[in-house]
Amino acid sequence: MINITLDVNNERYQVEVAAYHTLRDVLRDKLGFTDVKNGCSEGECGSCAVLVDGKPVTSCLMLAAQAQGKKITTPRGIATDGKLHPLQEKFIEYGASQCGYCTPGMLISAKALLDRNPNPTEEEVRVAISGNICRCTGYQQIVEAIMATAAGMNK
Question: Which CATH number is associated with domain 2-78?
Answer without folding.
Answer: 3.10.20.30
